[in-house]
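Thread amino acids onto this structure.
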C-alpha cells in the first residue's frame, strides 16, 4: 500500500499534544482557566485526559462534565520585499469535551472521555502567495478514551486510558505552474494509543503528577485526490480522479505537574510538557496514479518544552476564580516553515471560574487568548519566505453534575 506523510494529520498531532500550531488545547473548562496546568492537580473528570492517575481522587459516586468553546483564530502573512499582505478567513471552531466517571469502590474509579480538540480549519485568500502550499484545510477529529484509575494508598494512585482517534479532512492547494488545483478528502482509520498517569499527594498541601501520552500512528486508505487542470492535461499528464493513502505518527509527550495549596482559598499549579517533535522528519506526497507528483519535503522539527502556570482562588462557597499563563515555543525551524500549520512562539493568557449553582450542579467558564509572536520564516526548498504571526481567542462554558 502506498502511503503519504500528509500535512493534514500533522494538524491532528498538534491538537493531541500541547505544541505550537493552530491546534490548541481545549479539553477542560476548569483547567483552561489555569492555562491547562492539570497534570499535578485533581479538579474534575477531565483528569481522564490530563492525568488518569488523578481520577481515583473523585469523591462522588458519579460525575459528568461537559463543555465547549468557540475558537476564533487568524493568521497573518506579509512578503518582506513587496510588502504584500494576506490573512486567513477561518471558520469558527467549536471543540467540545465530555467526561463521565464512576467510583466503583474506595480504590477503583472508571471513566470515559470524548473530546474534539480540533474542529475547525484554516482558509487563506484566493491567489495568495503561498497558494502552492495551501489554500484551505477543514479538519474534524474525535478522541475517545476509556480509563481506569486505582488508588494504591492514601497518597498514591495510578491510571491508564486507551486512546482511540478518528477523523476526517478536506485539504486544498493550487498548482500555479499549470493553473490547476488539488482537493484531498479522506477519513482516518481508527487509530490507537494510550495515556498513563501517576498522581501523588505526599502532604495535604502538595500534589504531584506524571503523565505520558503515547505516539499514535494515524492512517488513511483510499482517500480522494481530485485534480482540476486544463483540459489539455486531463487524462494525459494528470489522472483527475486519483486516490491516496496516508500515515503519520502523532508524537508522544511527557508531562510533569505540581500543585501547592498555599491556604484554604489559594492553590497554584505548574506544568512542564516535553513534546517529542523530532519524530516528525519529512513530508512525502505519493499518489496512487499521479506518481510524477511525488515530492519529499524535509520538516526536521525539533523537540519543544511548554511551560504552564495557573492559580485558583476560592472567593466563597459558590464562586471560584482562575487565571494562568503559558509559553509554547514552536518546534518549526525557520527554514522549514509551511503555512498549512503556521506555528509561532505562542504566549497564552487564560482566565475563568466556576459557580456552584447547587450541591450537584456547577457552571464553569473560561477564556483563552493566544498571541503568536511574529517570525520571519519560510520553506527554503520552495523559496517561500515571509513574516507570519497569529492570534486566537476562545471563550468557553461548561457544566459539571455529580451525585
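Threaded sequence (403 positions):
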Amino acid at each position: 500500500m502506498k502511503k503519504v506523510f500528509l500535512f493534514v494529520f500533522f494538524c491532528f498531532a498538534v491538537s493531541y499534544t500541547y505544541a505550537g500550531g493552530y491546534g490548541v488545547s481545549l479539553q477542560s473548562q476548569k483547567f483552561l482557566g489555569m492555562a491547562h496546568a492539570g497534570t499535578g492537580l485533581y479538579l474534575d473528570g477531565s483528569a481522564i485526559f490530563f492525568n488518569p492517575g488523578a481520577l481515583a481522587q473523585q469523591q462522588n459516586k458519579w460525575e459528568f462534565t461537559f463543555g465547549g468553546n468557540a475558537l476564533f483564530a487568524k493568521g497573518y502573512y506579509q512578503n518582506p520585499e513587496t510588502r504584500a499582505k494576506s490573512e486567513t478567513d477561518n471558520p469558527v471552531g467549536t471543540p467540545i469535551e465530555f467526561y463521565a466517571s464512576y467510583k466503583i469502590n474506595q480504590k477503583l474509579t472508571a471513566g470515559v472521555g470524548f473530546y474534539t480538540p480540533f474542529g475547525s480549519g484554516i482558509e487563506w485568500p484566493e491567489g495568495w502567495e503561498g497558494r502552492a502550499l495551501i489554500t484551505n484545510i477543514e479538519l474534524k477529529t474525535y478522541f475517545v478514551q476509556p480509563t481506569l484509575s486505582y488508588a494504591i494508598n492514601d497518597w498514591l494512585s495510578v491510571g491508564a486510558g486507551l486512546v482511540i482517534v478518528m477523523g476526517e479532512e478536506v485539504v486544498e492547494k493550487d498548482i500555479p505552474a499549470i493553473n490547476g488545483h488539488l482537493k484531498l478528502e479522506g477519513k482516518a482509520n481508527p487509530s490507537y494509543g494510550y495515556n498513563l498517569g501517576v498522581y501523588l499527594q505526599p502532604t495535604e498541601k502538595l500534589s504531584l503528577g506524571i503523565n505520558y501520552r503515547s505516539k499514535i500512528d494515524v492512517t488513511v486508505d483510499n482517500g480522494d485526490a481530485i485534480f482540476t487542470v486544463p483540459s489539455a492535461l486531463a487524462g494525459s499528464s494528470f489522472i483527475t480522479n486519483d486516490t491516496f493513502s496516508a500515515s503519520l505518527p502523532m508524537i508522544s509527550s511527557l508531562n510533569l505537574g505540581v500543585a501547592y495549596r498555599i491556604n484554604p482559598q489559594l492553590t497554584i499549579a505548574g506544568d512542564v510538557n516535553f513534546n517529542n517533535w523530532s519524530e516528525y522528519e519529512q513530508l512525502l506526497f505519493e499518489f496512487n496514479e499521479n506518481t510524477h507528483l511525488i515530492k519529499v519535503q524535509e520538516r526536521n522539527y525539533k523537540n519543544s518544552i511548554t511551560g504552564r502556570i495557573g492559580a485558583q482562588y476560592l472567593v466563597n462557597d459558590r464562586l471560584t476564580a482562575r487565571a494562568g499563563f503559558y509559553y509554547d515555543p514552536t518546534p518549526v525551524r525557520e527554514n522549514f516553515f509551511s503555512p498549512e500549520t503556521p506555528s509561532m512562539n505562542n504566549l497564552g493568557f487564560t482566565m475563568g471560574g466556576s459557580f456552584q449553582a447547587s450541591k450537584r450542579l456547577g457552571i464553569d467558564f473560561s477564556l483563552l487568548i493566544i498571541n503568536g509572536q511574529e517570525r520571519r520564516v519560510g520553506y527554503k526548498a520552495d523559496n517561500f519566505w515571509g513574516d507570519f504571526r497569529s492570534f486566537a481567542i476562545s471563550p468557553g462554558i461548561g457544566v459539571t453534575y455529580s451525585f
